[in-house]
Amino acid sequence: MTKEDMYALMNQNPAFHLATVEGDQPRVRGMLLFRADDNGIIFHTASTKDLYAQIKKNPKAELCFFGYGTQIRVTGILEQVIDDELREEIFNHPTRKFLQAWKSNGIDNLLQIFRMKNCDAITWTMESNFAEKKPITICDAQ
After folding, report:
1. Number of structural domains, the chain?
2. CATH number at residue 42
3. Cβ(41)–Cβ(115) under 8 Å?
């Protein structure tokens, strides 16, 4: 599977699981992807969430996407994104109407954007279950 195929699968199946660490305890939760391409895997959360504190303390994470019988696990380091244009794009995107309440109530500063780039991905299918895992680097734009 090429990295372009991986991006397509991620974008077509935007629900994913994100694993972080809190102390010595792994934490996994479902998330909603905003976009995946050569510029990174982008998602957002609220600054009031435990997730936000976990990422700030330890930005190493793993993402797991699944679609069409294929699992993609992506490992890397998350970086916080401060970008007013991207922020507005997220608030105005048709899939993010639920965030409009934050804007209308003046609490839009809760929105925190993260990106994983320069990460390694492996794929898994039932057919490749016992095959050697060969990671490829994706989201490698600087």
Report:
1. 1
2. 2.30.110.10
3. yes
Amino acid at 117: K
- Digits of tens for pLDDT over the chain (142 positions)? 999 999 999 999 999 999 999 999 999 999 999 999 999 999 999 999 999 999 999 999 999 999 999 999 999 999 999 999 999 999 999 999 888 888 777 777 899 999 999 999 999 999 999 999 999 999 886 5
First to last CA, the chain: 22
d(CA 122, CA 72): 6
Distance CA 5, CA 123 (A): 11
- The residue range of the domain holding 105 is 3-138
Contacts (Cβ under 8 Å, ≥6 apart) of 78: 55, 59, 60, 61, 114, 115, 116
Across-strand partners of 18? 29, 63
Torsion angles phi and psi, residue 51, rounded to 5: -55, -45
